[in-house]
Write a structure and sequence with these properties.
Elements: E1 3-14, E2 17-28, E3 32-36, H1 43-51, E4 58-63, E5 66-67, H2 73-79, E6 81-83, H3 96-107, H4 118-134, H5 150-163, E7 168-172, H6 183-196, E8 200-204, H7 208-214, E9 217-222, E10 225-230, H8 232-235, H9 239-246
Parallel strand pairs: 3-8, 3-9, 6-7, 7-8
Antiparallel strand pairs: 1-2, 1-4, 4-5, 9-10
The chain binds adenosine-5'-triphosphate.
Residues 14, 17, 19, 37, 39-45 line the site of adenosine-5'-triphosphate (ATP).
InterPro entries: AAA+_ATPase, ABC_AA/LPS_Transport, ABC_transporter-like_ATP-bd, ABC_transporter-like_CS, BCA_ABC_TP_C, P-loop_NTPase
Organism: Rossellomorea oryzaecorticis
Pfam families: ABC_tran, BCA_ABC_TP_C
Length: 257
């Protein structure tokens, strides 16, 4: 399976603090890959680099065979890299359907049109409807986003990413802050998207049960370095991974071990 995303010797420092250190990733198309690691390991920073929020101090990022290292965020979105933004991209005073429709419009050629054609608007509404259903929001289509429960807002965010024709979904803790009762629905939405096989999903998640259930592959970050990568069931048995989680590795470089 060809890689959709690769990073080559990716590094980023904030002042003296090297947060990502020489990370070489290869994410295969159509897979669901989870990034795990203790707090402060650099997981969110890695997402920031891939989505373009920050630029690396060294190294390269390729998406679909094209070097995107220097591309700004909107151009990466256009190429198909989409990131969940912890609800900041939702328009609270619009309905679920309108939020999804606007993302469809943003992904289309009529983005700058003030009066998009009526037929096009109808097509967008049909597509928005389908995405609402896929993301288990059928009964909330006419609800204003501001009135949604937190879990439903996360589902809407995923629907909007799909509407933007995202090929690579970067989901940063999609179940964070969600009530225990709402977690299965988010899980199901992610599983539905995965089972279609049309998207690649990279997940940052602390809930190990969920990670093991969903992931084709695990990547373990520790102190900004890639500690391990591979089959989830094998990786969690890895002694170095267990030691990292138990806090035994502190700040030494993992490469010396
Ligand atoms: N803009 C920044 N300026 C300075 N330091 C930063 C910046 N962004 C992140 N860091 C530092 O980089 C390290 C890694 O942070 P990051 O948020 O990527 O970790 P994480 O693995 O996502 O942690 P968590 O699981 O707690 O979310 C932390 O020590 C953090 O303080």
């Amino acid at each position: 399976m060809p890689a959709i995303l690769t990073t080559n010797q990716l590094c980023v420092s904030f002042g003296e603090h090297q947060v990502i250190n020489d990370v070489n990733l290869c994410i295969e198309r159509g897979k669901l890959v989870s990034i795990i690691g203790p707090n402060g390991a650099g997981k969110t920073t890695l997402f920031n680099l891939i989505s373009g929020q920050i630029k690396p101090t060294r190294g390269d990022i390729s998406f679909n065979g094209e070097t995107v290292t220097k591309l700004p965020v909107p151009m990466r979105v256009r190429r198909g890299i989409g990131r969940s933004f912890q609800l900041t991209n939702i328009f609270p005073e619009l309905t679920v359907l309108e939020n999804i429709r606007l993302s469809l419009q943003a992904a289309g050629k009529d983005y700058y049109s003030i009066f998009p054609k009526l037929s096009l608007r109808r097509r967008q509404l049909t597509a928005a409807d389908e995405l609402a259903e896929k993301c288990m929001l059928s009964d909330k289509k006419e609800v204003f986003a501001q009135h949604l429960a937190h879990g439903d807002k996360r589902k809407l965010e995923i629907a909007m990413l799909l509407a933007l024709k995202t090929e690579l979904l970067l989901l940063d803790e999609p179940t964070a802050g969600i009530s225990v009762d709402d977690i299965p629905a988010i899980l199901e939405v992610i599983e539905r998207i995965k089972s279609e096989g049309r998207h690649t999903i990279v997940l940052i998640e602390h809930k190990m049960e969920m990670v093991l259930h969903l992931s084709d592959e695990l990547i373990v970050l520790f102190n900004g370095e890639l500690l391990a990568k591979g089959d989830p069931k094998e990786i969690i048995k890895d002694e170095r991974v267990q030691t990292a989680y138990l806090g035994g590795m502190h700040s030494e470089s993992i490469k010396s071990g």
